[in-house]
């Protein structure tokens, strides 16, 4: 704990440098760990990472983040895909969530993208532009990102939800069809009844 205190209060480094070092530490650890099932949860320094992540989200403006910080945030959110503590913190700051979600559209990690798509539902009522971002995530090529984005459109009762759900239904993919049925049910759509027998 004393080492953590020294690290967090080191005047020679700013918070972005400290975060970069901790993300690098996770990256180096990940190369020595068998990556199966919930392997990320085994990382011994999540508490420290969470603390620095929270400090960045709470005390800095998203438009001041450089590309290194943006990439670090996207990467580590993806690694926290079981507890979702990091994305939950980010969602407390809608402007930062929207900013990072926009940056994440072209990001390669599906575990980052599905979380961003889902948590955009939490700011939709005050930031309607979140809907357009969720639609863009729905267009992703990764099946799970697409599925979670579709479910997110259902949650916010998006004007695009039925159209996207029909696309997923006609994909013929089992889990896409199940997600589509869930959306039809949420929207009280007649498709919920008419398509169940197919």
Q: What would your notes on this structure say?
A:
This protein is mainly α. The protein has two domains: about 1-160; about 160-198, no CATH class. It is about 65% helix and about 0% strand. It contains twelve helices and no strands. It has helices spanning about 1-10, 15-30, 45-60, 65-80, 85-90, 95-105, 110-120, 130-140, 145-155, 160-170, 175-185, 190-195. Helix 7 (about 110-120) runs parallel beside helix 9. The protein is elongated and about 65 Å long. The N and C termini lie far apart (about 60 Å). The mean pLDDT is about 95.
Residue share in helix: 55-70%
Number of helices: 12
Largest sheet: none
Instruction: Give the overall shape.
Output: elongated
The radius of gyration is 19 Å
Report how far apart the termini are: 59 Å
Number of strands: 0
Order of helices and strands: HHHHHHHHHHHH
Summarize the topology.
Blueprint (H helix, E strand, L loop, with lengths): L1 H7 L6 H16 L15 H14 L7 H13 L5 H7 L2 H11 L5 H10 L10 H9 L4 H13 L5 H10 L3 H13 L4 H4 L4
Helix pairs in contact: 2-3, 2-4, 3-5, 4-7, 6-7, 7-8, 7-9, 8-9, 9-10, 9-11, 10-11
